[in-house]
């Protein structure tokens, strides 16, 4: 009898888990290597902005020259919108096309990127602007928005990675970013200048668990602010919540454990057509890996209390 009860409980847990997370064909882009996904919903279309790992990247270093864009009306079939932005768009850039995010405001699309700044040593954050979600984009200000000498919480030169921008219900825009540091700053209404000073959030266990790494993604749902990020290295995806866009943050746990095919993951979460989706990258395409990555998407449902369920990495598995 105990064995029967144990079996039934195991089956129930299994069924509940797979009812909260649905698996589609992954990776969603298979004709090139893509990484560091970010999403934007505009006019009933979901746009997917990604970094582009080059085919000839070595096995121990990134080689990324541009950012690509895709669009979809169903989160399954993706139209290639080309390469709307390259590092050469920024005359001050002297490095790779690292993680980025595009947002819409006041008839314009603003694409926040991280790349090496050859005029100020270290990685910097720039912003490009366009009248269309698919470009063409141009450098909005002619220089970096944030340079490495403006942030001092971390001593290394690549702490200004992975910008995420969120516009709250009152119209105030916030930018979070950071590698082994978590910075935030308000943006002015023009979206291309800072409003106030940059704040570094203490990386406490209460706020972020044992090891915040990089790749923050900020959004709001039912009055709660969610900060999703990569933790540890090799990376897993964790998250924290707050009732305020600037914290204090409370650590909520792991969303996606470490994956086998890539040392990094990089998250995005988006609601589209009444469903929620977790977007990330792995290294599961042929000849892929930590430096030739592939974007994946999984549909999921929040728990009744608003927490996010555990989501496991999958590839080539249908719903």
What do you see in this structure?
With 319 residues, this protein is mainly beta. The protein has a single domain, classed as Tachylectin-2, Chain A. Helices cover 7% and strands 41% of the residues. The protein contains two helices and 21 strands. Strands 2, 3, 4, 5 and 6 form a five-stranded antiparallel sheet that branches. Strand 13 and strand 14 (194-200) form a beta hairpin. The chain is globular. The two termini are 34 Å apart. Mean pLDDT is 93; it is low at 1-19.
CATH class: Mainly Beta
Q: Which structural class fits the helix and strand makeup?
A: mainly beta
- Would you identify the CATH H-level superfamily? Glycosyl hydrolase domain, family 43
Helix content: under 10%
**Amount of beta strand:** 35-45%
* Rg (C-alpha, Å): 19 Å
Calculate the mean pLDDT score and round it.
93
What does the overall shape look like?
A: globular
* CATH topological fold name: Tachylectin-2, Chain A
Number of domains: 1
Q: Give the uncertain stretches in residue-range form.
A: 1-19
Number of strands: 21
Largest sheet: 5 strands, antiparallel
Helix count equals 2
Order of helices and strands: HEEEEEEEEEEEEEEHEEEEEEE
The end-to-end span amounts to 34 Å
In the CATH classification, which architecture applies?
5 Propeller
Keywords: Carbohydrate metabolism, Glycosidase, Hydrolase, Polysaccharide degradation, Signal, Xylan degradation
Protein name: Glycosyl hydrolase family 43
Active site: 36 (proton acceptor), 214 (proton donor)
Organism: Lachnotalea glycerini
């Amino acid at each position: 009898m105990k064995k029967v009860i144990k079996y039934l409980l195991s089956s129930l847990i299994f069924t509940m888990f797979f009812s909260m997370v649905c698996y589609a064909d992954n990776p969603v882009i298979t004709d090139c290597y893509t990484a560091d996904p970010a999403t934007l919903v505009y006019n009933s279309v979901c746009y997917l902005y990604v970094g582009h790992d080059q085919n000839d990247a070595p096995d121990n270093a990134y080689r990324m020259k541009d950012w690509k864009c895709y669009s979809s009306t169903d989160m399954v079939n993706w139209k290639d919108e080309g390469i709307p932005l390259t590092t050469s768009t920024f005359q001050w850039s002297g490095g790779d096309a690292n993680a980025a995010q595009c947002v819409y405001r006041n008839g314009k699309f603003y694409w926040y990127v991280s790349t090496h700044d050859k005029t100020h040593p270290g990685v910097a954050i720039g912003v490009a602007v366009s009248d269309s979600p698919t470009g063409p984009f141009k450098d909005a200000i002619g220089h970096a928005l944030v340079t490495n000498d403006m942030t001092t919480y971390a001593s290394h030169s690549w702490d200004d990675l992975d910008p995420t921008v969120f516009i709250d219900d009152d119209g105030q825009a916030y930018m979070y970013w950071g590698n082994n540091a978590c910075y935030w700053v308000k943006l002015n209404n023009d979206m291309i200048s800072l409003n106030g000073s940059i704040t570094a959030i203490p990386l406490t266990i209460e706020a972020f668990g044992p090891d915040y790494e990089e790749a923050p993604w900020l959004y709001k749902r039912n009055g709660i602010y969610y900060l999703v990020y990569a933790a540890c290295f090799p990376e897993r995806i964790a998250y924290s919540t707050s009732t305020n866009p600037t914290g204090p943050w409370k650590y909520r746990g792991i969303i996606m454990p470490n994956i086998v095919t890539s040392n990094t993951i990089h998250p995005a979460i988006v609601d589209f057509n009444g469903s929620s989706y977790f977007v990330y990258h792995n290294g599961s395409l042929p000849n892929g890996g930590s430096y030739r990555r592939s974007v994946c998407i999984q549909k999921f449902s929040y728990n009744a209390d608003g927490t996010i369920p555990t989501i496991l990495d999958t590839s080539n598995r249908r719903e």
